């Protein structure tokens, strides 16, 4: 059995690697980059730019930033800051980095604005004490832990946007896991980027086509193979409705958070949440 086991280990190692691929198409001045196994999914980027060297440099900076954030938000990585916080915060005050504290303060704000339906603890955000004066984090309950799964991709896309803007990349489309999208500028043959929303229960059926320009899009919903992956943090019940929701916002962090909260919320709760976000464009698709 040693031979097959070695092959299996090799395959598992391959799938655990962050593999990136990129290619520049001279004829269309188009750059395409892909990064596999990042935050449990895949990221694809398209830049429209005549400077090939600039595209390659921006892509490498993008990959480096994504790998940094992947490690930062990985609660299973024993070397990550969030792993240390989850391990130690139930019994002591843990000094946090500026970035982690800033993210958690933002998460707390959205927790309140979403009527508690966005919760990085999935249990009780009120049990997380953020001491901004001493830059420490502590938990008042032992069963609390922090999981950034509902906002990490959005935060990462906002960081990627900073890289693109600083490099003066004006036209780009970034797709993170087929659920979080950043659109800058427009497609070379149009005045926007067009994104199709597919019915996951009927492959090939398009339920909407969304036009994006200098905005962020996030889509949340259930799929036939993943009916129990969105949890209402107040009731601890899975959301099993056959529906998807989309939200367009000015930044990806906000878009991803709102799509999660609005997927969980009932109609009245949706209206209350959206009253705090006049700029956001929300759609719900009953499948």
Short overview:
The protein has about 290 residues and is α+β, with helices and mostly antiparallel strands. The chain has helices at about 1-15, 50-75, 80-90, 100-115, 150-165, 250-265, 265-275, and strands at about 20-25, 30-40, 40-50, 95, 130, 135-140, 170-175, 180-185, 195-200, 205-210, 215-220, 245-250, 280-285.
Task: Please tell me about this protein's structure.
The protein has helices at 2-16, 52-73, 81-88, 98-113, 152-166, 252-264, 267-274, and strands at 20-25, 30-38, 41-48, 94-95, 128-131, 136-139, 171-176, 180-184, 193-198, 206-212, 215-221, 243-249, 281-286. With 287 residues, it is an alpha+beta fold. The protein has a domain at 81-139. α2 (52-73) runs antiparallel to α5 and α5 (152-166) packs antiparallel against α6 (252-264). It starts with a helix and ends with a strand. Residues 10-15 have low confidence and may be disordered.
Overview features:
three-stranded antiparallel sheet, 7 helices, 287 residues, alpha+beta, eight-stranded antiparallel sheet, single chain, 13 strands, globular
């Amino acid at each position: 059995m040693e031979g097959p086991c070695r092959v299996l280990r090799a395959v598992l190692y391959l799938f655990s690697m962050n593999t990136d691929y990129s290619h520049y198409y001279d004829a269309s001045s188009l750059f395409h980059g892909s990064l596999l196994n990042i935050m449990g999914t895949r990221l694809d980027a398209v830049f429209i730019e005549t400077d090939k060297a600039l595209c390659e440099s921006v892509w490498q900076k993008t990959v480096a930033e994504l790998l940094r954030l992947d490690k930062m938000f990985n609660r299973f990585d024993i070397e990550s800051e969030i792993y240390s916080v989850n391990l130690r915060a139930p019994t002591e005050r843990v000094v946090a980095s500026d970035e982690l504290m800033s993210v958690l303060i933002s998460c707390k704000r959205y927790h309140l604005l979403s009527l508690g339906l966005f919760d990085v603890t999935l249990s009780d955000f009120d049990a997380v004490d953020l001491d901004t004066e001493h830059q420490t984090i502590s938990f008042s309950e032992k069963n609390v832990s922090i999981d950034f799964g509902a906002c990490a991709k959005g935060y990462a896309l906002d960081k990627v946007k900073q890289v693109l803007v600083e490099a003066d990349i004006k036209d780009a489309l970034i797709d993170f896991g087929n659920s979080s999208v950043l659109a800058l500028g427009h497609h070379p043959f149009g005045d926007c980027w067009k994104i199709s929303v597919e019915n996951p229960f009927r492959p090939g059926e398009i339920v909407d086509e969304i036009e994006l320009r200098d905005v962020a899009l996030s889509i949340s919903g259930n799929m036939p193979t993943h009916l129990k992956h969105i949890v209402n943090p107040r009731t601890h019940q899975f959301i099993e409705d056959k529906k998807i929701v989309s939200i367009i916002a000015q930044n990806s962090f906000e878009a991803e958070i709102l799509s999660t909260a609005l997927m969980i919320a009932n109609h009245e709760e949706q209206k209350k949440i959206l009253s705090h976000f006049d700029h956001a464009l929300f759609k719900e698709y009953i499948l």
